Every structure is written in structure tokens, then in C-alpha cells.
Known about the structure:
Blueprint: E1 10-13, H1 20-27, H2 30-36, H3 45-54, E2 65-70, E3 75-86, E4 91-98, H4 107-121, E5 127-133, H5 137-146, E6 149-160, E7 163-173, H6 174-180
Parallel strand pairs: 4-5
Antiparallel strand pairs: 1-2, 2-3, 3-4, 5-7, 6-7
Helix pairs in contact: 1-3
Amino acid sequence: MDSIWVGERVRxxxxxxxxxxxxxxxxxxxxxxxNNDRLHPPRSKAGYRxxxxxxxxxxxxxxxxxxxxxxxxxxxxxxxxxxGIDKNSGVFSYGIAIxxxxxxxxxxxxxxxxxxxxxxxxxxxxxxDVEIYAYNTASLKLHEKLGFVEEGRRRRSQYFAxxxxxxxxxxxxxEEYAAAHSLGTVQSS
Length: 189
């Protein structure tokens, strides 16, 4: 079986309600949370479960979240979610997070390539924009390696840990993606 959602290292899939405790564990790491979003107030196990159960999306919904599973370990190592959907302009955004214990193994870059292949090759989007905290050099380097181009910077636009932080704006077009990665193929049966 051939799946657009399976790479060499990861499988993109739905997050099961019983895995909500892993998301809760990821959220306990303040550095991890500040690199991926921001700190959130504590939430109950039931609150995490409700969050997971509400985030599946539908097959016709371009705004969705998914889990990232390590094929080698057979477990959830992170997740991503699309956002900023602008069907009129054909532009979307996403956020991605890989648990601290699973970083620097190629999971994020492979999951991003799979997501972009789907959004560009199946859903007709023509551009993806991302926002990355300026101090998150690992994410900036990863996105540059994947073909994203720095388009600007919003200075002092986020406040946490007692200071203001810049946000770097990066983007990739379908043409830039296709020059470096496959949009997929259709197999005859």
C-alpha cells in the first residue's frame, strides 16, 4: 500500500484520545512550549482529551491537526496543525512541534515535506507561510533547508519570559517546493 502520509521515518496520522497524556507531557517543558507556541495555563487530563477529540477536522477541511508517529518507535513524537487558511489566495500556514526527546532525528523535516506535498499537490494551495521566533535557530535552519525563504521580521511582536521577541516570517511557493521535493505521482492499478 502506498500512502502520501508515510515517509522513511514518520507516519502522519490522527492523534488518539489516549495519547492526549503525551501532549500533556510535552506541554510541561517550558522551553519546548516557548519554541513552538507559548506557555499555556495548566490543563487537566480531561481538558487535553477534549482538545484531542475536537481537533480531527473533516476530509473537506483544510484546517486540521495530525500526529507525527516515529516508524522506528511506533509512537507519537509530535504533531502539526494547519491554520491561516486563505482559499482565495491559496495560502496557508502551519505549526509543528516535536517532543524534546525526539528532536534532531529528521522527524520534523519529513513531516513538513509530507504536509506540503498534500497541501500543494492535493488541495491546490500555492504558498505556505510560517512564523518562527527569531531565537529558534534550529527551526529557522530547518525551514531554510527545506526551501523556505525569509520574507521579513515582526520586531518585538511577542512577549514572554519577561522580554519581547521578534518573529521571522518565512514562505515557500509551490514552485520552490516542487524544485526540491516531489508533488507525488499517480499509479495505475
